[in-house]
From TrEMBL, chain A:
Organism this protein belongs to: Pseudaestuariivita atlantica
Domain ABC transporter: 3-237
Lineage: Bacteria, Pseudomonadati, Pseudomonadota, Alphaproteobacteria, Rhodobacterales
Keywords recorded for this protein, A-Z: Amino-acid transport, ATP-binding, Cell membrane, Membrane, Nucleotide-binding, Transport
Coiled coil region boundaries: none
Protein name stated in the entry: Peptide ABC transporter ATP-binding protein
TrEMBL record, chain B:
Protein topology in the membrane: Multi-pass membrane protein
Pfam families in alphabetical order: BPD_transp_1
Listed SUPFAM superfamilies: MetI-like
Name listed for the protein in its UniProt record: ABC transporter permease
Cellular compartment(s): Cell inner membrane; Cell membrane
Natural source organism: Pseudaestuariivita atlantica
Keywords: Amino-acid transport, Cell membrane, Membrane, Transmembrane, Transmembrane helix, Transport
Gene Ontology BP term (one): amino acid transport
One GO CC term on file: ATP-binding cassette (ABC) transporter complex
Domain spans labelled ABC transmembrane type-1: 71-264
Membrane-crossing residue ranges in chain numbering: 21-47, 67-95, 116-134, 146-165, 239-260
Length: 244, 276
């Protein structure tokens, strides 16, 4: 077992956003979180990355409860990468500087020592000729791939993706989903919040349906998409699968 | 047909005509105003006297070199104050931004500091520090008005500069800081490498305006001793019973401040364009 969420709870003021989430993620597994906007997907990912403190519950990472409030979040965040919908690249740095900043500052490695590994990552995701570009010189799809490389450069054990294709023009979605497939083949453990239902159906090992801060249904994609048990899942799927 | 020969589209030709006409009108009206001033103002009954005491060419020529020399002292005081202000201003801005409860006193200090020094006229701070501290009977060189005058300017201006830095820091979206933290960077590194570089870039035009104001306010130190340009002009005024030295001083200031102001405005305009 890689990651275990146990009764995770989170409120903003009086609104309960995560209402007792429990979830096991095995090593190398890809779990997709689906659910209506506002159901708590982003908040859940941000809690796992410790960007938001939990109110209650536990998050076990390899036998250690990382939700322990007294814990220093910094070393844990290094083990859990996160990529955001809006890329959030640092606009004053080139792509390669974006990627090297954290390894240089946190692991105290030199640019020269990092260069082979970083160059290989840019190469692999088709950005070898974009390393010296600034974010505003890159397309959305390229920026998002740089953001993924930036997270990977910290050699995380788990990657979290928060609707990373939602801000992209439709023709750029494919190149980013391609990266996710490649990571899955590497055996990366991943949790994705996504609206790409076709992708979730084809690639995910497991799908979790969130509704008002609870996981109302989970299972293999074939079952959740074709034979959902919950009426609310059926309602959600019919909304997203047949738009208009 | 002539337009077609010049290789212009109809629109370009039209815009060229508009430009020519507005240039002509602007030039004509400016000329008219200048002529009116040149010919009408001398008709005023007191013009002879004003010209003698404010625009005396002979006095201008005699005092200009000395005043220019005195202005170098203004420039020097400016030159050593500005980096100190930038450093202290940034430190105060960061102090006001600390979240760690252990460092709360630092944050309180930053807030009180900016409140006090933004709330008191510069000239009062110059007087209080410039006369007050040497009055303690410190030994040389610690009774120098240069030191305490500089301290007064640095303390006052740092408060304003800190507020500008802070507004820059706050204008950098929280998601940038979160992205840095999520990579495992420390809070300090996130500030230093991610937030601050963006914040400082955004406030450069505003800080340039502070520099221009500082260059002018250096003249306030004349009240506590240093014979810089304003004080030197006063000496000449008494000596020659003529106000022209003040006009000379104003001209010398303008030669520096007008280009700097234009540059700052240009930077602000460019930034606004980039943002929209
Ligand atoms: N920082 C915050 N402060 C207050 N409410 C928040 C905050 N972040 C999210 N919320 C609320 O929590 C709920 C879940 O949001 P979110 O996790 O972004 O959902 P999703 O990603 O599934 O669309 C929403 O109702 C949202 O308004
Ligand atoms: Mg979301």
């Amino acid at each position: 077992m890689k990651l275990r969420l146990d009764n995770v709870q989170k409120s903003f003021g009086a609104t309960r956003v995560l209402d007792g989430i429990s979830l096991d993620v095995a090593k190398g597994e890809m779990v997709c979180l689906i659910g209506a906007s506002g159901s708590g997907k982003s908040t859940l990912l941000r809690c796992i990355n410790l960007l938001e403190p939990l109110d209650d519950g536990a998050i076990w990472l390899d036998g250690e409860d990382i939700a322990e409030p007294a814990l220093d979040p910094q070393p844990i965040r290094q083990r859990i990468g996160i990529v955001f919908q809006s890329f959030n690249l640092f606009p004053h740095m080139t792509a390669v500087e974006n990627v090297m900043l954290a390894p240089r500052r946190v692991r105290k490695e030199t640019r020269e020592a990092l260069r082979p590994e970083v160059t290989a990552l840019f190469d692999r995701f088709g950005l070898a000729d974009r390393m010296g570009h600034y974010p505003d010189q890159l397309s959305g799809g390229q920026q998002q791939r740089v953001a993924i490389i930036r997270a990977l450069a910290m050699r995380p054990e788990i990657m979290l993706f928060d609707e990373i294709t939602s801000a992209l023009d439709p023709e750029l979605v494919g190149e980013v989903l391609q990266v996710l497939k490649a990571l899955k083949e590497d055996g990366m453990t991943m949790i994705l919040a996504t609206h790409e239902m076709a992708f979730a159906r084809d690639v995910a090992d497991r799908v979790c349906v969130l509704d008002h801060g609870r996981i109302i249904e989970e299972g293999p994609p074939a079952q959740v998409f074709t034979a959902p048990r919950e009426a609310r899942t059926r309602a959600f799927l019919s909304r997203v699968l047949q738009p208009v | 047909m002539s337009d077609a020969r010049a290789g212009l589209t109809r629109r370009q030709a039209h815009e060229r005509d508009l430009r020519r006409r507005s240039l002509l009108i602007a030039g004509g009206s400016t000329l008219a105003v200048i002529l009116a001033i040149v010919f009408l103002v001398p008709l005023a009954p007191g013009w002879e006297r004003v010209q003698q005491s404010f625009f005396n060419a002979e006095v201008f020529a005699r005092t200009f070199p000395k005043l220019l020399n005195a202005f170098l002292l203004d420039v020097a005081i400016f030159a050593w104050s500005a980096p100190l202000i930038a450093a202290l201003g940034l430190a105060v801005a960061l102090a006001r931004d600390v979240r760690n409860p252990v460092l709360y006193p630092l944050r309180l200090f930053g807030t009180v500091y900016t409140d006090i020094f933004r709330g008191v006229p510069v000239v009062l701070v110059v007087y209080l520090i410039g006369f007050g501290i040497p009055g303690l009977g410190l030994p040389r060189p610690w009774n120098s008005p240069y030191i305490w005058g500089t301290v007064a300017l640095v303390l006052t201006y740092s408060a304003y500069v800190a507020e500008i830095f802070r507004s820059g820091i706050e204008s950098v979206h929280q998601s940038q800081r979160n992205a840095a933290l999520s990579l495992g960077l420390s809070g300090g590194d996130s500030m230093r490498y991610v937030v601050l570089p963006q914040a400082i870039r955004r406030v450069i035009p505003a800080q340039m305006n502070m520099l221009i104001a500082l260059q002018k306010d250096v003249a306030l130190l004349s009240f506590i001793g240093p014979v810089e340009i304003f004080r030197q002009a006063g000496v000449f005024k008494s000596l020659l019973a003529n106000f022209t030295p003040y006009v000379v001083a104003a001209c010398i200031f303008l030669v520096i401040t007008v280009p700097a102001t234009r540059l700052a405005d240009h930077l602000i305009a460019r930034q606004n364009r980039a943002r929209s």
